[in-house]
Amino acid sequence: MGRAETETADASEWADMVKKKKHNKYKVAPEEERTYNGTVYHSKAESTYAAQADMLLRSRDILGWKRQVTFQLGPDNNTTVDFVTTDRHGEYVVEVKGFETPEFKKVKKLWKKYGPMAMHIMKRVGNRWQVSILRGKGG
User: Fold this and answer.
1) Residue 32: per-residue pLDDT
2) How far is Cα 115 from Cα 13, in angstroms, rounded to an integer?
3) By Cβ atoms counted within 10 A, which residue in 57, 71, 87, 106 is the most buried?
4) 67 in any annotated domain
């Protein structure tokens, strides 16, 4: 049988080693890469969308946007969406996705049945957005 190798470290060295080994299964960028205007977003793509939404707001292509808005989907389900954007036609939800998790697939099914407005599912492909629109009961 082989012997396990051991390392000794003081508390600060140990913390540094843990930080280096720690990773996120969704490959989330470091905080500084997903921070926009003082807010840390869940992903770099979300922070990019927020910056672009502000540009659209300044150019008056949209009237406003909010982040992390919660909706009730049916009697027993709530979901928090990335953004609600308002333009001259009304409101729509924006979900920024790197990939779809099983949880989000469930949200999509519930959104089709109970969602009060359209949901724009946005995926960053190179320097462009790929958008698919999911219609809820209200949009």
Assistant:
1) 84
2) 49
3) 71
4) yes
Q: What is the pLDDT of residues 83-123, one digit of tens each?
A: 999 999 999 999 999 888 899 999 999 999 999 999 999 99
Residues 6+ apart with CB under 8 A from 55: none
CATH number at residue 84: 3.40.1350.10
Number of domains in the chain: 1
How many CB atoms neighbour CB 109 within 10 A?
Answer: 12
Q: What SS3 state is found at 137?
A: coil
Query: What is the residue range of 73's domain?
Result: 37-134
Structure tokens given for 10: 């003081």
* Rounded Cα–Cα distance for residues 111 and 115 (Å): 4
Residue 74 in contact with residue 136, Cβ under 8 Å?
no
| Structure tokens belonging to residue 134 | 């999911």
Taking the complete model, does pTM exceed 0.70, yes or no?
yes
Q: What is the pLDDT of residue 18?
A: 55
Q: Which residue has the higher pLDDT, 137 or 84?
A: 84
Cα-based distances in Å from 94 to 20, 39, 88, 102: 33, 17, 16, 18
Residue linked to tokens 């990939």: 99
